[in-house]
Amino acid sequence: MRHWLNVIFIAVAAAGGYLTAINKFEKSEPVNLGDILENATLIDLTHTMEEGMPPGPSGEVAPTITPFRTHDDGTAKIHRFNFPGQWGTHVDPPIHFAPNTRTLEDIPLQEMILPLIVIDVHEKVINNPDYQISMIDIKAWEDKYGTIEEKSFVALRTDWSKRWPSLEKMRNRDEAGISHSPGWSKEVIDYLVLSRNVTAIGHETLDTDPGVKAGAGEWPLQTYYMGLNKYQIESMMALDQVPQNGAYIIATWAKPKRGSGFPARVFAIIPENIK
Question: Which domains are present in the chain?
């Protein structure tokens, strides 16, 4: 797995179009990044930004995308975007919930290109929309694929993104107004961060916490996780198209000074020999 990641890291750091990288473990054998990418499958994990999708923490002010200039005035086409940092598929840096931790500009490039691990609990969610991932799920993954690799990105597949862009379906409130959507658990966060030293996590839901908490304006798990100085990607999509092991994730975003969140562009790279 590290073989492929080494090639990507070298390519991103270097300049030039047709680039030859040398694997540090097999220095006599050149590896061409273009050939690898040509035969790889790329999966977009990012929802398209558009008015009317779940608004994020914008209160009563709906995000907007409006024309600023058009070709009609003889100049360039430009749009004006008005949205909170947490809108659509987005990155939450630690500062989002934890004071005196990292902002967007503090997250290094090395944390944006990572091995991608997908924990699939979508079948459990079908009959229990309040499901929280457990150590049983983690143990089952490690029994099948081996120890979760450190400095990796762990994504929680629930297929909740198939409810997008309906806020009503994403929140899934009952007659009493209680939201029901799946989420993480503290035992799994502790295991992934403290025992396996993963770099980041991601999910298809709007929140780290299950809906019964987040839908009521309570975020104990997200507060705890951000306090560990780790970032996450929220509102991901298409995790059903990514293998549970062997792919890589590219997660990137704009670099606002002291930024506490921003829409992200996230995609998976699946080498041709990975199923």
Answer: 1-39 (no CATH), 41-270 (3.50.30.50)
Query: Cα(76)–Cα(249) distance, rounded to whole angstroms?
Result: 33
With tokens 């409006």, the residue in question is 66
The model carries a pTM of 0.89
Q: What's the DSSP call for residue 149?
A: P
Whole-angstrom Cα distance, residue 200 to residue 155? Answer: 9
* Tens-digit pLDDT string for the chain (275 aa): 444 445 454 444 433 333 333 333 344 466 567 777 888 999 999 999 999 999 988 777 899 999 999 898 888 999 999 999 999 999 999 999 999 999 999 999 999 999 999 999 999 999 999 999 999 999 999 999 999 999 999 999 999 999 999 999 999 999 999 999 999 999 999 999 999 999 999 999 999 999 999 999 999 999 999 999 999 999 999 999 999 999 999 999 999 999 999 999 999 999 998 87
User: Distance (Å, rounded) from C-alpha 180 to C-alpha 71?
Assistant: 46
Q: In sequence order, what are the beta bridge partners of 22?
A: 30
